[in-house]
Fold AH receptor-interacting protein.
Amino acid sequence: MAGVVAIGEGIRKRITTPSKAELSEYRDGTKATFHYKTLLCDDKRTMVDDTSNRDKPMELIIGKKFKLPVWETIIRTMKEGEVAEFLCDMPLVVDYPQVSRSLRRIAAGQDPREGQRHCCGGIAQLHDHSLGYADLDALQKDPQPLIFVITLLKVEEPGTYRQDAWAMTDEEKLQAVPILHQEGNQLYKDGKTVEAAAKYYEAIACLKSLQMKEQPGSPDWIDLDTKITPLLLNYCQCKLLEGEYYQVLEHCSSILNKYSDNVKALFKRGRAHAAVWNASEAEHDFSRAVELDPSLAPLVAKELKQLETRINEKEREDKARFRDIFK
């Protein structure tokens, strides 16, 4: 290919969209935000990943020892606004299936560690373990060179941005949580529930990453869990308003599995059950909430009245629909 240059052992670069920006020094702590496409080196240039159709691009902190070191190497050669292709030899990208799995799960709002086995030996011992994605399983079984098409959106110098949870030290995560909590509360008051939920989620991620290092049930683990619970309840309140009822059911149930007398979790789960027509489950949660906090009785009565009205309306609609079918 014309314009191809070697930028290191096993890496060849071709600029497809040049940039007039200055090349950053890429000091440790510099944040690079970019979209990437990952292609196989076959005749069809088969697509493996493409972040351009995701809400959030990739963010890489220079010097943080990302699990795919070749990305830091190629980003250091790029200017803000540049688009370039990088052909990387197989030894440099052998870990890509594992990295891609984690990034796909994060993009889907899932825990990237869920389902992984913790064992010695790294990739070699995971060779026969499914990653949950057929294309990544195939790539893990048969490693090969990869092409990365990188669109470098933004380069931010150290100290000019707030790091994402995964890039923070433990101390930085603890310091960020009350700030994120306060920002989420203000956004909620302003009626910006989507943005508020994102803040609560980020604070939860900080605490969850710390909790992963503690023994479940230990005093430190419990202390972190007591900090996570109110944030998760706030997150559920946002999801209720957004109509994401099954997320509310899942998260409130996770709280109640540990803290069966959490009134807020019972009430929110009751509202979510009511919204998805689980009438008996809603009545059970509302009744239990009133037992624990009698002051909720008027609010619960209102919720149950609304549920009864909706059920009656649905029954009338169903009868009318069936009547029309048999005419």
